[in-house]
Amino acid sequence: MKIIKQTGSRLILKDGLSNFASLLGWGGVLGGLPLVMAGLIMANAGVTQLSCQRQMANSVTCEQTQSRMLGLVQDSRRSIGDVTGTEVRTELHSRSDGYFEPRYRLLLGQASQQMEVPISEQHYEIAEQIDLFLQSTEPLLLIEQDTRMTQSVIIGVPLLLLFSTITLGTLLRLIRLEVLEFDRLHNRFHSRQWKLFRWRERSGTLADVTGVQIRDLGRDEPVYSAELQLASGQRHKLAASLNQTEIEQFVDRIKTFLQIDDSDSAQT
Fold it and tell me: Is the pTM of this model over 0.90?
């Protein structure tokens, strides 16, 4: 909290404006994470296309192209001639839990050379489709696997909404706004605090304030906290700082206004 106004009879402290910029900064960082993650997902989303063309009766040439960035950037282009058949290889890959899962690779080509087609699903169905084409007399076969919809919409959008909701909820819980007023003319203090989505108010007489104490909350390095001591035994945190001189000057101003002697408020 900071002292924002002081007169002969009133002292007003306010918290929230000083850390609002930092909250916005953290909100920008946290809110930017889902945007970055969604951007990475969309960057990998693209189109894999395989085209096989019959040059002569027994000669088929296949060319595969890959694109990314939602299909806007062509990533690779490869071709192989005299394709005679396909092969689906199954490889076992270990998982972190100790189990194995199969991964499939679709290969096409000839006896001396093969080319992998980077598809993510329906390996056997596509292999059968290519084999049927090789046995037929059709002039052209075009196979396309588009991951833009599945990755950018089905995965990216829910991920963006999930992290945005978590970010917003976290920031709302962190925001702490408070106005604390000491009024010697009416012999009262009043605190109005916004926390956890609602306003909380506390009032009392100045006689209820028994002292203002500085406590060291740090472990590895000192962190000084100024706290209001109430007759009920409760403590009300006013401010915290790494600068001992700054927090002592802050406490001295409050003590002077409330006319509290150092003997009434011991420093620990």
Answer: no
